[in-house]
Design a protein that fits this description.
It is a single chain. The protein is α/β, with parallel strands linked by helices and about 180 residues long. The radius of gyration is 18 Å and the shape is globular. It has seven helices and six strands, in the order H-E-H-E-H-E-H-E-H-E-H-H-E. It has helices spanning about 1-10, 25-30, 40-45, 65-70, 85-100, 115-125, 160-170, and strands at about 15-20, 35-40, 55, 75-80, 105, 175-180.
């Protein structure tokens, strides 16, 4: 998903850096943006003065951490949903936005898609008499056993502790930064 968001953002700026703890994910991002510098530690991206905005598509439990870091380094942020996992995280982000004056936006485009809106309209107007719930399929057997990270996945280079690293291996994080196009 983040590559799609970054592709859209590239209409307004140049992709100058990509971040991931997984070498395979970095290689895929570099195919799309060969001139972007690759990082395994997002904090090094934050140090760059030439980057004005960050597109945050990390695993959900890192959204707040990466977004807060970007805001504190005076970078505008576009973050995939969910923006936070707790009310407290949301309060910290609001405080950081007020203190820095930076822009923070979260995406919820799918919710305004015409198909979702049409379904809501049918339901609200009584056109649907019976609604079935469909639950997503996937792995539900947790808690998962500890495992050695796959080769090329540098989970411990980015401040991760053992509990967050195990989750990071399920859906490896991505962070793409955008530099304002000065042309």
């Amino acid at each position: 998903m983040v590559r799609g968001d970054a592709k859209n953002a590239s209409r307004f700026g140049r992709i100058v850096a990509v971040f991931d703890v997984d070498d395979k994910q970095i290689a895929e991002a570099k195919k799309q943006w060969p001139d972007a510098e690759a990082y395994k530690d997002f904090r090094k991206v934050m140090d760059r003065q030439d980057i004005q905005a960050v597109v945050c598509g990390t695993v959900d439990h890192w959204h707040t951490l990466v977004s807060l870091a970007a805001l504190r380094f005076k970078k505008d942020v576009y973050c995939e949903k969910p923006l936070t996992l707790t009310i407290g995280e949301g309060q910290r982000l609001v405080k950081a936005v007020k203190e820095t004056g930076c822009v923070l936006q979260t995406g919820s485009q799918q919710r305004s898609d015409k198909n979702f809106r049409l379904a809501c309209e049918f339901l609200r107007n009584g056109k649907l008499k019976h609604v079935s719930a469909w639950l997503p399929s996937g792995r539900r057997e947790g808690p998962f056993k500890s495992a050695t990270p796959p080769a090329g996945c540098h989970w411990n280079t980015s401040f991760a502790n053992q509990s967050s690293a195990a989750l990071a291996l399920i859906d490896v994080q991505k962070l793409v930064t955008v530099e304002e196009n000065s042309r």
